Amino acid sequence: MKKITTLAVIAIFIFFKPSQACTVISCALKGEVFAAANEDDYMGFARMWFNPKTAERYGSVCFGLPDLQAQAAMNEHGLFYDFTAQNIDPAKYHPKNVYQGDLLFEILGKCKTVKEALVYLEKYDYAISSQVLIADALGNSIVINAGTKLPKSGHYQINTNFDISKVQNKTYSCRRYDISEEMLKEVKAINVPFFRDILNRTRQEGKLSTIYSNIYDLKRGIITIYHFHDFEHPYVIDVKKALTKGYRLEKISDHFPTSFAYEQFLMSDKPMYRKEMILNEINQKGLQPTIDRYFELGKSTDKIDSTINNILLEVGIQLVKDAYNKHANGGIWEYWFAMPGGFKIESFNDKRLNAAAEIFDYLVAEKETDTKLKNFIYELNAYVRLIQGNQDKAKAYYTIAAASSTNTWPISFNRSKKMLAIL
C-alpha cells in the first residue's frame, strides 16, 4: 500500500489565519450604512454558512475557507467583522486576559453594536495576529489589532494589510488602501454599485487572488456576493429570511456560473482540488458509495491513484470539521486547535462522523503509513469515537497516540494526554 503524507497537519498549528491580503471597508453616509470586502487568498473553495438564532446566540452568516474559521461575518442585527492579514505579534503587548476561544465569533453571537463589542474587548485582550474591522448598522466602526484600537472618525474606514496605527502619520504603503480612499473621499451617495466599483478596482489576480467579494447593507441586512472577479453575476442574501431556513453550509461557487479561470486557479493546488472533488461526489452520490469506491482505488497499484490515501485523510478531517460546525451552530472545531472548549466531553450524531471513522480505520490499517502520521490518525479517530459516545474505543486509541512523545507529533501527543486525563 501507499505511504500516506499530508499537508493537513500544518493547519493544526495555525489559528485565526485570515485571508492573505484583503480590502475591508465600512462607510455611513446620508442614512445609508455599508461594509464591503475583497477576500484574497492562494486557495479557493470558499464556504458560507448560515447559523440560525438560538437561546444563547444571535443568528449570523459567516464566510471562510474549508477550515471554517470565519474570515468575515454579519449577524441578524447588522454587526459585521472582517479580518486582514498582518505581521503583528500579540505577545509583545503582553496580553493578560485572553479569551479561550474564537473571540470575534463570540462577539458576533452576543452583540448588536460596536459599543457592545467593545465591552467584550475591554474584558478580553485582543491576542490575535491579524487586524479586524468591526462595523454596525448604526454607522459605527473600529479597526483593532493587538496594539491599536482606531475608531472611525469620518464617514468611512478602511482596513488593508498594514498596521492601522500608521494611517495617522501616513507611514504606510498600500495601493488598495489609496484607491479605496480616493473614491470614498469624493462619494456623494453610497449604494451597491459604488462598492462594487471599489471592489473591482482593488481586486487581485494571480496566485494570490480575490476569491470572493461581498457588499453588506448593514441596515437592511442584505449581503451581495460576487465570485472570483465576476462582478456581472451577483448573488443576494436577505439575512433574516435566509436564517429562517435553518443551518446550511454551502460552497460560494455553487451559486455562480462556471468559470474556466476559476477552475484553472483551483487546479493549481492538486491535493486540495482532489479532496474537494471527492466532497462534491459525496454530495451527489452519497457518503457510503463514495468512500467505498475510494477505498478500492486506494488498493490499486495504478500510478494515478498513488496519492489517494493522502486525499482520503483530508476528506475525513473535513467531514469532522463540517459536522462540528453544524453542532456548534457555526463555530469552529475547537479541538482541532487545542482550545480549552474543545476538550469537553460531548456527543452528537452525524453521518459524516461515521464516514470519517471508517476512513480513519481504513488508513491506520495501511502497513506503510509513517508512525507519527498513524498516531495522528489514531488520535483523530479517538476524538470521533468519543463524540459518537464510544468512550472505551476512544480511550484505546488515545492510549496508542499518547504512548510515545517521540513517535507522535507534539500536538497530537498533548491532546491525547489531556483527553486521557479527562476521561
Task: Name some characteristics of this structure.
14 strands; 13 helices; single chain; six-stranded antiparallel sheet; 423 residues
What does this protein look like?
The protein is an alpha+beta fold. 37% of the residues lie in helices and 19% in strands. The protein has helices spanning 103-110, 114-123, 175-186, 192-202, 239-243, 260-267, 270-285, 287-298, 308-327, 351-364, 371-387, 391-401, 410-422; strands spanning 23-29, 32-41, 47-51, 60-64, 72-75, 80-84, 131-135, 141-144, 149-151, 156-159, 209-217, 222-227, 230-238, 248-251. Strands 9-8-7-6-5-4-3-14 form an 8-stranded antiparallel sheet. A 6-stranded antiparallel sheet has the order 10-1-2-11-12-13. A hairpin with a 2-residue loop joins strand 1 and strand 2 (32-41). The longest helix has 20 residues, at 308-327. It is globular, with a radius of gyration of 22 Å. It starts with 22 loop residues before the first strand and ends with a helix.
